[in-house]
Amino acid sequence: MAKIGVLGGTFDPIHNGHLRIGTGAYWEFGLESIWFMPSGIPPHKRDHRVTEGEMRWDMVKLAVADTPYFLCSDFEIKREGATYTAQTLALLREAYREHEFYFIVGADSLYEIEQWHHPELVMKHTVILAAGRTYRSWHRSFESQIRYLTEKYKAKIYPLHIPEIDISSEEIRRAVAEGRSIRNYVPAAVADYIIDHRLYRDSE
Length: 204
Fold this sequence. Notes:
The protein has helices spanning 16-28, 53-64, 85-95, 107-112, 119-125, 142-153, 169-177, 188-196; strands at residues 2-9, 33-38, 70-72, 99-106, 127-131, 157-159. By secondary structure, it is of the alpha/beta class. It has a single domain, classed as HUPs (Rossmann fold), CATH 3.40.50. The chain is globular, with a radius of gyration of 17 Å. Its EC number is 2.7.7.18.
């Protein structure tokens, strides 16, 4: 079976941290490719504005274009209505029976996963690769959280050993709104796209 990494997210915008996580997962776990999968309508982000899907899709395509083992997947963005991870993973397994999927998440997702739509199905349908660190607001260490979820859900969860990445899409949007350069945080083609399409000019 081909081992495929799935890195989903709003990608508003995609940034160098996302790409480093994808690269780290590819090499550490011997994956065949990494599918970057922009979400359609993120159910957890209905309380604030999200850039239209076509533009987020364009930025992801630009960001992954020069890396042969990166692929931009429209599996979620072409679906109508809210897109839940549990549904996406079940549909992926059905559509690509020849693949084994590795779902790549950050530490925040690992701590919040029990609040997701059917978290037991998320952990049933995929191997989870988690990048990140312990969050101070949580009483469990990163390693303890992995053990807790593994025991409770019989999940397969492995840590990604990559340097800590201190970049967020929210901070990038704020920098653009304030007129600061973002070229150290996103690929050049993505920075140019944001400028050309006048994205994120209004502060949130």
